[in-house]
Every structure is written in structure tokens, then in C-alpha cells.
Amino acid sequence: MRHSEEREEAELALLSGNEDSTSNTDIDDLDLEDLEANRKEESSTTTSEPVEYQTPTTVKFIWVTCYFGFSMALTIYNKLVLGSFRAPWLLTCLHTSFSALGTLILLQMGYFKLSTLGRREHLILVLFSILFTTNIAMSNLSLSLVSLAFFQIIRNMVPLFTVLIYRVWFSRTYATGTYLSLIPIVVGAGMCTAGDYHFTLLGLLVSISGVILAAVKTVTTNRIMTGSLAMPSMELLFRMAPLAAVQSLFFAAVSGEIPVFLHAMSERNADGALSRTLITVVFIVGNGLLAFVLNIASFQTNKIAGALTITVAGNLKQAITLALGILVFADFTINVLNGVGIFLVLAGCACFSKVELDSKRRAATK
């Protein structure tokens, strides 16, 4: 009997894939012990209910709130401080560089430990980083081919493609109420961004491809953290960020962003106002730090709340951003279509949350 038990334990250890290297993660001080679980615990969840249905509701709510709050903060920060900064690749390089440096500091402080990865796992991470930068490239290309309003209304369909990916590739189904709640979320977000739609056939194809890539990236992020690899969110960010930073810097050089940025900085120095240059540097560093904490919240929220939830939060953010633009910044006036759109998004998100909470309760009673 003991021999049989030992053999079963050996087989379990083999399936969990070097779990011992992450089982000693010490993050008690941040109350994240149940979130950054070791690989053995994570791998066991993949055979039953999804992770989002096993995570305590309070923990999930806290992380979703953090993600939404940091995301809104970065949006407002960019509008107020970096509104004239037109270098998306350099900005992405900045964000991922700060994420790489920040997670390195957390690693040295002992907040997480690195897993032992094989060649296959390293290849997965390289491909994931390429997917990350390709998604940005497709977004930038789409914006150059279609109007902003059309780009936004296409991007609002990410939740639908996320559901489709889960259904086709992972044979996962959601409650009927979840599917129905996505209708007002997607339609309402489209009404929020209603405007001058113009596009070409090429622009349409590129925009749809970009939406599919965005959904694939979100689902892939979730699967790396909750599937057989079961990588903690901080470790995934630590391993992915340097690769994405190098790739973004390469695209910045190819697209000509670096000379333009250096020229703009030299003009500031030529004015003789050193304070302006220092303020710019402080603003850029602040943007990088805010992006770092947002990336941590984004990855962790994706892990414990699910890929679909984080795409729904993206549509909600768009509606709230529109409301802030009207009420706070007075960027434009609201019309009936925009108002109804905001209401539909809020109502749809409320229904989505209710249905997902009911699904979690049903899973807990099984």
C-alpha cells in the first residue's frame, strides 16, 4: 500500500512540474498567500472549477477594484500630464521597463521566487512577449487606418471574442445570464463611442485582427497563470516585461520615435529652463511607476477574476472615462445616445457581476 501511495505522489509531482521551487513563496506581509499559491495547488484547480470560481469574493473584489482604479488613474494621468506625448512604443518600453525593474526589486526582497523552467516554458514566455508587442502594433496600425470612433467600437467586442475563444479552444461554457449580460455591455460601450465612422476594407480587417489578438492575449495571460504552467502573476510579469521592453524599444527605433523624442527633449534644454526638463523626467517616471502597479493589478486580476471579467472591466472603464470627460474635463457634451450607452454598460456590468457571483455559489455547493 505504501509503495502505491509513493508512486501516486511521484506521478502528482511530475504533473505539477517542479512545484517545489515555488511552494515556499513568502508573501504573508501583503496578505497574498492565497493568491500566489504554489504550482501544486494551482495545477489541481485546472482539473475542476475555474480559478475565478474558487477565489474568495472579497479577494476578487479587492483586486478588480485595484485594477480598475489604477487603470483609470493612468488614463487620467496620461491626459493631464502626458497628453502631448505621441510615442506609443517608447511609452510601452517605459511601462515594461519599470515593470521589469519593479518585479526585480520585489524578487530580491523575497515577495516571490522563480520557478524552474524548461526550454518549452521559456519558449512559451518568448512567444507570449511577442504576442504582447504584436497586439500593440496592431492597435497602432488600426488607428492609422480607421477613425477613432470606429476603432473604439470594434475594440468593444473583445469580450465577445474572449467568450468565443474559451468556447472553441477550451470547450468552456458560461451561464446563459453571462452571455445575455454581454449584450448591453458591448452595445452600450459602442453607443458611448458613437461618432464619425470611416474606414477602409483593409482598416476593418486590421481592426478585427487586432481585437482577436487582444482577446487571445488576455486568455493566454490567464492560461499561463491558471493552466498547467501555473505561474504566479508577479513571476510572469518579471519574465515577460524585459522581453517586451526590448521589443518595444526596437519598434520605437524602427518607427522613428526615438529621434523625435530626443529632438523634443533637446528643444526643452535649448530653452535654458532646466526645471522644465526635470519636471518632464519626473512626470515620465511617475507614469512608469503607475504603470508598474497597474500591471501587477492587471495580471493578478486576470488570474483570480478571469479573462472575461477583465475585458468587461475594459468596457466599463470606457464608459466611466466618457462620463469623466463630460463632467470633469468638459471635453465634449453628452447626447442621448451617449447617456443611454453609459446606462447600458453600467446595467450590463451589474448583471454580469450578479450572474458570475451566482455561478461561484453554485460551484461552491458542488
TrEMBL record:
Classification via InterPro entries: Sugar_P_trans_dom, TPT_transporter
GO cellular component: endoplasmic reticulum membrane
Membrane topology field: Multi-pass membrane protein
Keywords of this entry: Endoplasmic reticulum, Membrane, Transmembrane, Transmembrane helix
Cellular compartment(s): Endoplasmic reticulum membrane
Transmembrane domains' residue ranges: 61-77, 89-111, 123-143, 173-191, 197-216, 236-254, 274-297, 304-330, 336-357
Domain of life: Eukaryota
Biased composition (Acidic residues): 26-35
Keyword Membrane recorded: yes
Record region (Disordered): 1-51
Keyword Endoplasmic reticulum: yes
Positions of the Sugar phosphate transporter domain: 63-353
Family designation: Belongs to the TPT transporter family. SLC35D subfamily.
Function: Involved in the import of GDP-mannose from the cytoplasm into the Golgi lumen.
Quaternary state and interactors: Homooligomer.
Name of the protein: Sugar phosphate transporter domain-containing protein
Organism from which the protein derives: Penicillium ucsense
Lineage, top ranks: Eukaryota, Fungi, Dikarya, Ascomycota, Pezizomycotina
